[in-house]
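Field reference: sequence -> structure
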Amino acid sequence: MKEIFTKIKNQFNSNYLIVDNPDHPYTVFSPDVLIGYAGNLLGLFFLRKDELLFIDKLLTRLSHSRLVYPTNLKCILMVNDDLLEKNLSRYLERNFHKVVSFKDINKISKIFKDLKILKNLDLIPEKIKEIAYQRYEVYYSESLKLLRDEKKKHKNINKFQKEIKKMDSDIPLNSWYQERENTKKSYGNIFRVNEGTVVSPLETHKTRSFVKDLSNLMIYSTTLDYQIDSGIPYEREQFIKYLNLESFTLNNFDPYKIIRASCFSGWIVLSTNNSDYLLQNVHNYKELYYERIQKKNKYNQSDSSW
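Structure field:
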């Protein structure tokens, strides 16, 4: 990847802002490279091997990027031609401004300097971004309150795990590209508590798998909350989702990053081994969502075509 970035960077002079692996404070899903100049912004997405097997992961990167970066972001997918079958290629072409072969890596500067050659996908409506940030603010505030609550402890952790696993495992599923049932195995332990709420306990001491498991849960939540069409994530009916972490200060440089990213992905985060405490909060989901979010986001049908 470093070699690819160098080839891209060498095509531009110092007036261009070029960022490798951009780190946004609200998400872990971003383009691989951002290029900015004179009010224009280009995001390059390198199709990875694991994304080729799990296209929803790539589309989550695209969706989060369209939500958190400026509205004028143009998204280019870079691929190895021989790895894409025709149906998948056509599907991705509908959602990105352009699909470019890695063989044409030296043409990126030409594309940037003539953005008219890119597909004219619609700009993401500001209302979609506004609702995403309003929901994030509510979820983040609620998460901080729950994480600081001293009433959340203490019960036997083994008993807690058993109690959680008695919940309904028939969870709501959605996939943008894969067959739904084929995606369930990617998500680990997720349980339905009632009609509109799902819970996932995540064991943070399993450090080798934690990052992957957390990433997959963010993908699960995003595919459940949005439907992607022509590169735009349109909001669907929301499920309240609680993510139970054993601990959360996992990064000394930015200990709350995983909390922010989880909340932006649609999870309310808490840390408890008390199932009664967990269920008490889960059953308050109607007040949390319908009163604090939906009422604030009422809009007329005439104001939105989505």
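Note: The CA atoms of residues 197 and 240 lie 5 Å apart.
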